[in-house]
Design brief:
- There is one protein chain.
- The chain is mainly beta.
- It has three helices and 16 strands.
- It has helices spanning 158-161, 310-314, 318-323; strands spanning 2-7, 18-20, 24-42, 45-51, 55-63, 66-73, 88-97, 101-116, 133-149, 165-167, 171-186, 204-222, 225-243, 247-266, 270-286, 289-307.
- The strands form two sheets. Strands 1, 3, 4, 5, 6, 7, 8, 9, 11, 12, 13, 14, 15 and 16 form a 14-stranded mixed beta sheet that branches. Strands 2-10 form a two-stranded antiparallel sheet.
- The chain is elongated, with a radius of gyration of 21 Å.
- It starts with a strand and ends with a helix.
């Protein structure tokens, strides 16, 4: 089971554009699909490496401007009857949506990946690889990112992603994001077997990246419906460590992209919708081999709000009052 906190600071917005819901609790039912994928490209052939258990069911709550989601994986492991190595799956993705800032914290650790060369968007034929499950492929990902929302008085990003507020009028804002990330990919004896890559496949690839991304966000409103479109793109300065027969270290500049989109209905008491977040970063495992890390999180939700009980309101920590500007 996974516990995901999402905190939202409730500073005063422009009431012409944003409606807040103080002293309320919302509850929701959730269907979530998320995971960290790898795209492997070499000499015109492309493969997508998919982790185990990517679909979750759960419930969520939101009060004191802090949201919690309790999720249970429901999809079965591929080839589960044939696995000899244990599958590891840990996926924490937390976000803070405040008036002027968006903050993302990610920690993912997966062991065991499925090879999917036959997807419609990939060019490699099914016969290229005889290995369809890589039990010893292990991936660790850590990322902290922050984005400044310049028009924070009038645009409520959390209206689309946590339902802590409701956007009343259409509005847009420029964003500027920065972040630090760490990837570690390794296997035994090598990351990718010779069915996928020549014997030059590395044993380990590590990258540390410093990101800078300008971007744009818009909330489009029609009555009780809101559509959010957010995009950030820019360079990442990477320090790479590749271990093969020898250790290779290098610096490079690679593209990084962050995209968010949401569609939701909110009449003040009931709400439902869907949102998705995707983060793309490219790296290099060898001069002929490119790796693209794709972190995705898609959430379908339906919920309602009700008044916060007096006894619970009295227990609200003082630090949260300070964050809310009370």
């Amino acid at each position: 089971m996974l516990l995901k906190p999402v905190a939202c600071q409730a500073q005063a917005f422009d009431k012409t554009f944003v409606r807040n819901f103080p002293d309320t609790i919302n509850a929701r039912w959730l269907v979530v699909r998320k995971g960290l994928h790898l795209d492997l490209a070499q000499r015109g052939q492309h493969y997508r490496l998919l982790p185990d258990k990517r679909t979750y069911l759960g419930v969520g709550g939101f009060f004191w401007n802090i949201g919690f989601s309790l999720l249970v994986p429901v999809s079965s492991p591929p080839l589960s009857g044939f696995l000899q190595s244990p599958v590891k799956r840990f996926d924490f993705q937390g976000s803070v949506y405040s008036k002027y800032w968006l903050l993302d914290v990610v920690y993912q650790h997966n062991r065991g990946y499925e090879v999917s060369p036959a997807s419609h968007y990939l060019s490699a034929p099914e016969t290229t690889a005889t290995v369809s499950w890589l039990p010893d492929l292990e991936v660790r990902h850590v990322r902290v990112g922050a984005a400044r929302v310049f028009n924070g008085e009038q645009i409520a990003m959390r209206s689309s992603f946590t339902q802590g507020s409701r956007q009343r009028k259409s509005i847009a804002s420029w964003l500027l994001s920065g972040g630090l990330s760490f990837f570690d990919v390794h296997g035994s004896p090598v990351i990718f077997p010779t069915d996928l890559l020549p014997p030059t496949s590395p044993q380990q690839v590590r990258s540390r990246s410093l990101e800078l991304q300008p971007g744009f966000a818009a909330n489009l409103v029609h009555r009780y419906w809101t559509v959010n479109v957010t995009g950030l793109a820019g360079p990442s300065l990477q320090h790479r460590y590749v271990e093969k027969t020898s250790v290779e270290k290098s610096w490079a500049v690679e593209p990084v992209l962050d995209a968010r989109m949401a569609v939701g209905y909110d009449n003040g008491r009931y709400f439902f919708g869907i949102w998705g977040v995707a983060h793309y970063m490219q790296s290099v495992a060898s001069p002929e081999t490119k790796l693209t890390y794709i972190n995705q999180n898609v959430r379908l939700y339906i919920g309602f709000r009700f008044a916060e009980p007096d006894w619970l309101r009295k227990l609200e920590p003082e630090i949260l009052d300070r964050l809310e500007g009370k």
